[in-house]
Amino acid sequence: MNFLEITIYRIILKTYLFFEETGRQNSFERFSYLRVLTERLTKECLDVWQRDTGLEASRYNNLLSRICGKDEADNNILCNALDLCIAVAYVPEFSVYLNYYTGNIATIQIALELDGITHCSYNDTLRLLQKLQKVCSVDWNKNPLPYAALAIDNALLSYLTGADSLSPKLFSDRITYFKHNTLLHPMFINQHLALEGAAWLQNTCVNISYETNSQTHILHLKGTGGRRFLAKQIAHLMKRDLLLVDIRKCKNVLEMNLENTPFWNELLHAAFLKNAIVCLYNITTSLLSLTQIDPADFAATIVTPFISADIPVILCTDIDVSFSAVKDFYLYIHQITLNYLTRKERECVFRGFAELYQIPVDCAFYSVRYQLSASEIAYAAIQWHHLSQPKPEDFSTICNALLYNQQETALGQLFYPSVRFQDLILPVSIKKTLEQICCGASENYQIFEEWNLKNCYPYGRAVTVLLYGPPGTGKTMTAHAIAKELGAPLYQIDLSHVLDKYIGETEKHLEQIFSFAQKAKPILFFDEADSLFGKRGEITDGKDRYANMEVSYILQRIEQFDGIVILATNLYSSIDKAFLRRMKYVVKYQSPDAAMRRHIWENCLPSELFCENLDLDYLAKQFDFTGGIIKNIIYVACVMAVHDNKKLCMEHILYAVRAEYEKLERPIVKDMWGEYGEIIQ
Hints:
681 residues
């Protein structure tokens, strides 16, 4: 017989002898199987059991010592309770036996009576049950408390037998088990925070003021990016494993009685048996609000059992979650805040991973271009490293995906332009200005950081561009070309969804746009900008007042922004002068001259297009169309050619020109067709 078998038979026999002494004679009469088990016990077996130093005996004695703590007076009672639970788990008939003679199964009352104690105070009972709760489930709803049912789960049996397996149900998708000796990449920044957190959890931090008598096992990591990685680093420093619990996936559990759910009991027991730290993450105000749990109640209810079991707890939350009120529950929490990375910190993280995985990138440029958190940079680097044949541009693709894939498009649309600068047919002066705009945007780092202009520009660092002129002159195409030149997506704002009749909603939408752009750094493009950036007027009623407030808010938000903003309008005179002052570049577009129109006609006729005898010189000189109108004419003419099953010819072009004149309500006279008058007739 092994150690656990003898332990089980011994407690069954001890219970039988107690019943005999208390007048319940011949209690095995109905339970012959229990008699058979106890008859296996001999003096030699008990002697071997007392001297046993094997795995089961060592783990059993170590576990009992950890449960009892420094109070050795509780040793016999807790030993009885633990043995009763083990016997009930292994021998179902024993649970029936206990219930038949006591009306209960395994309880602290039976454990007390087996040790000759018939009565115990409420406080002593509570203390004993709190110790047993480390490895046993306790029915706290039972009244009186000494008769609360005790039970153990498979985690304890697995631990005692050396199997060390964890419940598949518990660790299905909500919990990740991290071994402290798992290889982690280095901490490139904030190494001091890992030391601070480990010192707090070990109660040895001399640089932090706290009450020496308090339970100081709770660490609150709040902020953005890298909280779980920091928790792993802390566990590594403390040489203790870590159980990472995704609270977001425990929603249904949180809606139940938190103290008595099997999930939390099994988690508590697993953490105690593994001597692990528990990390609860994805704690947000929205989740707590949805489950109608106050942060203080959440911490006090869930954390207290872990603290009682001497299990350190790490809480990972968003920046707006606070547990300050938890002090009323005698739980003292130390807080570490992870702020948004500075540009230098991002460069340090990018450089660390670039050296670790041999990624050939410009870390200074990436730190400006991609405002990612430390965890996002780590994810991008690992994804790049796992590619079969990674290229430098693949790393940029992964970073872009992190920034843009999750973006809501309700307020605008992301474009990845294909239009290039050489596709633009514009005056040389405008092209030079556009080159300056791109240079200023790409070299912002050198201008503000290396040349230290940031001290002169605490705000107003955005590259702001106003494009104005008649419709169809290339303003939108220019915005696309700038995005293509800078290698950034174009975020074209849908003003119909931004502007809202309800007070405050427009500002809320704009804040969403600028918050996304602040991190993702797309090029913001406001087409028809006069509707949003129009002049502020005289206040005659409440509506005017709030309209002016919207304009003032946009001015303030552009001042705070440090990306690229492009405005396009046909109505220059309608733009508020305060916006014009904040525009670093104002570019005026005019209708193209004949030479430019000739180039536009050529560019809009690809080589794959079947056409014959097109007189582009005539078309360019005779009709003063803008580029947008020329594109429309060619499209309509191509439709006609397909319909006639012919090549594109002057007849199709001229009919399309006449249709455009009619659409624009421009007069059509016979002389305007010149030598092609007969064709159009």
